[in-house]
Amino acid sequence: MNELMSQAVELMIAGMGFVFVFLVILVFATGAMSKIIARFAPEPATPAKTPRAKPKAPASVDPDTAAAIKKAIAQFRSRHKK
Predict the structure, then answer these.
(1) pLDDT at residue 61, rounded to an integer
(2) What letter does residue 62 receive in the DSSP assignment?
(3) How confident is the model at residue 58 (pLDDT cuts 50, 70, 90)?
(4) From the CA atom positions of the chain, what is the Rg in Å?
(5) What is the distance between the terminal CA atoms of the chain, rounded to a whole angstrom?
(6) What digits encode the pLDDT tens for the residues 5-57?
(7) CA quadruple 2, 4, 6, 9: dihedral positive or negative?
């Protein structure tokens, strides 16, 4: 039983070590590729920013529309009283 546990611990350490080494290599490889791309790739063209037109609000609300909104709010509040 003791030998089986020691083999399990050895296998776990070997597996975790392999994963750690692989991830370290992956980090360095990704960094190297980023530096190579930054050196040889042309700068991306950035589109010129155009100012957005602000939406124009109506000068006044139609009285019929205002009455409908008030009625809808009152109906909603009456149905959802706490």
Answers:
(1) 80
(2) -
(3) low
(4) 33
(5) 65
(6) 999 999 999 999 999 999 999 999 999 999 999 888 877 778 778 887 777 76
(7) negative
Instruction: Report how far residue 43's alpha carbon sits from residue 35's, in angstroms, rounded to the nearest whole number.
Output: 13
**CA separation for the pair 6, 14 (Å, rounded):** 12
Name residue, tokens 């700068």: 43
Tell me how many degrees the CA angle 37-28-14 measures, rounded to the nearest 5.
Answer: 150
Give me the amino acid identity at 78. Answer: S
The residue count of the chain comes to: 82
Task: Look at the alpha carbons of 57, 62, 66, 72 in this order and tell me if their dihedral is positive or negative.
Answer: negative
Please tell me whether the overall predicted TM-score, pTM, comes out greater than 0.70 for this model.
no
